[in-house]
Amino acid sequence: MMSVCWSISVLLAVVVIAAEVILTNGSSKCVARSFGHDSVVCECNSTYCDSVGSASLPPLGGFTSYLSSRAGSRLEVTQGQVQANSSGAGVRLTIVPQQKYQRIRGFGGSMTDAAAINILSLSAAAQDQLLRQYFSGEGIGYSVVRVPMASCDFSTRLYTYADRPGDYGLDNFTLAAEDVNMKIPLLQRAQALSPRRLDLLASAWSAPAWMKTNGALTGKGSLKGRPGGKEHKTWAQYYVRFLEEYAKYNLTFWALTTGNEPSAGRLTNYSFQALGFTPEEQRDWVALDLGPALQASSFPRTHILILDDNRLLLPHWAKVVLNDVHAGKYIHGVAVHWYLDALIPAEISLGATHHLYPEYYLFGTEACAGWSPLDRGVKLGSWARAEQYAHDIMEDLNHYVVGWTDWNLALDHTGGPNWVKNFVDSPVIVDAKRDVFYKQPTFYSLAHFSKFLLEGSQRVGVSASEETRLEYSAFIRPDNSVVLVILNRSPSEIQFEVWDPAVGYISSAAPAHSLITLGWNTS
Question: Is the Signal keyword given for this protein (predicted)?
């Protein structure tokens, strides 16, 4: 009898613990670990990982708040009631739905060789947990995956798909083992987990060395000859062949870029893979080679994004390329990276480009923390980096960008592997020896946008009643619900209220160093 009672007691204890971990909306709590920085990571293993759940909103009259903070909150959920009258406390943020801006395409990260190596270093169950965190319906809503075409610095070796000299017909074009054995299977698994079709985005770092002026994959070099010549036409066909090979695995690409950071291979003696283009060369290559090659292929609807480089090159780069009708007719958007963003205001670069060329969308294709020589590598638990992410995403969104793509989906504790030792940080850091992975504060920073700003959500106006240190951006989703993201980078709590004329007032407060996503229905 005693053993039966003891068993029942243990069972009840397990149920209680489970009830404490699994919240009412299907979310589960972070297992926090500190590594000596200003906040914590959330540890996940083969059997457990915290999750925000389905993140459904309450019926009309209610609202849901999701809070992450330096103090340790991670998408902490609370619910409240919309009020008919103002509380009069703090700054008022008024939703202005008649002011309509761009529609959201999506958010995501990059399936580099390094990311694939790290994911596959875990047990099968832990791999599944990691992929679910990004791509499943219970995860954070990633819908975009950038895929490097052949090697980049986040590879363990230098290679392209056509390394035999003089192969202008690309007769020996072959995907690498890194594609066939690592990236493609993981992309297929991610697609199987995702409730929607993933938008794949292809970017090349370098053409084969025999096509280039410097005869190497690295350093300062561009394509031999001129646009319209045999090297330029072969390089365009290389893109088509890549799309054809991936299509054999039922992986089709929403878009491709004209090449990663073309300024690097033209202006600097880059230490890793690069292919230089001036804006004039890129314009003519698209007009004479890449555009026609794609249109004549089986992938005429695949989007072409120019630049794929830092926004400080805008609007000049866009003017050179998009003012040409022959190039412009093939192009859909402008891809930007976040590096050096502090050197030029978003309105002067992104805003000016949008106002000049509103028919072309702006899309963020690469960002990572830990890239600067002054703040290098992995910092487990850095909230300061989460704030950097949130500030940049919000600034981009408030200046017409339709999506934002992180760099490596996963790295190890050194920030690699990276063959040139260009180590950086990632939202997920893998510890293969312990078969665990850590979700960094940047993971949650991204989640405040990627989980809630569904494809087709439209940015709308927000006006503040007074000067405030809060940063904010508002959206109406396809189902007419409203999402408001608020960042407080200050050391003090800030009281605020939201007024949506369609429903009423929401009173709240943003703790010091916090990120909040508010959501409510309007019908």
Answer: yes
